[in-house]
Write a structure and sequence with these properties.
The chain is an alpha/beta fold. The protein has two domains: 151 residues, 3-Layer(aba) Sandwich (Rossmann fold); 64 residues. It is built from twelve helices and six strands. Helix 2 crosses helix 5. It starts with a helix and ends with a helix.
């Protein structure tokens, strides 16, 4: 499908929910935070936060719930997620290693573009005995985004620039709607690897939908 339309020269990966199953940890922490702080923030709202940086999430929450101690709420969530990560309570998403091996065999450039900070990303990979430098040709972290957040395409555009590749020939693999919107706005080839967030009408119209990263391999074989 993709292979027939254009030559793909790069793949840019989001991290949480695409490479690691950490979105399940965020959902667990979200439910616990709702209970602890006595709020009923919906799962739909939580999904709308996915992919955004921490500052934007907090700013929007302050508007959405003006009576909530947003910093305490989010700090509780972060502490919960980080605890689960430190004890290794997360997995590598299926077919990630196989996808990387396939991309490298085809000479396709690979980048990581995540709203997480560098230290957190490095910890995740290290805990699963993987080295970021050995996998990716370029990386973009929260520190590199100049305060900009998905659905702004800035992170993906910077990743493509670092790789020396044109966005129109570059796949962005995302699990969030905000990430898919950023890919579309940046004129990338958007691929939604479904995790906890179901594809909405926008994603179904604009993105290639795959169940896991074996779907990415199959798309590129065509």
């Amino acid at each position: 499908m993709i292979g027939e339309a254009k030559k793909i020269t790069a793949v840019i990966f989001d991290m949480d929910g695409v490479i690691f199953d950490t979105e399940s940890l965020w959902k667990k922490a979200f439910l616990a935070a709702n209970k602890k702080f006595g709020v009923d923030i919906s799962e739909e709202y939580r999904q709308g936060m996915c992919g955004k940086n921490e500052k934007l999430v907090r700013d929007e929450l302050r508007v959405h719930r003006p009576n909530l101690d947003v910093d305490a709420y989010r700090d509780f969530m972060l502490e919960s997620v980080n605890h689960d990560i430190r004890v290794g309570d997360f997995k590598i998403k299926p077919f990630f290693k196989e996808a990387i091996e396939f991309l490298k065999s085809k000479g396709i450039k690979i980048a990581l573009a995540t709203s997480s900070h560098k230290a957190r990303a490095e910890m995740l990979f290290k805990l699963k005995e993987m080295e970021i430098a050995g996998i990716f040709d370029a990386t973009i972290y929260a520190e590199d985004a100049l305060g900009r957040s998905k659905p702004d395409p800035y992170m993906f555009l910077e990743a493509a620039k670092k790789l020396g590749q044109d966005p129109s020939n570059s796949i962005v693999v995302e699990d969030s709607i905000n990430g898919i919107e950023a890919a579309v706005r940046g004129c990338f080839v958007p691929v939604m690897a479904v995790d906890l967030i179901p594809p909405n009408a926008f994603a179904k119209e604009h993105a290639h939908i795959i169940g896991d990263l074996s779907g990415l391999i199959e798309m590129l074989k065509q």
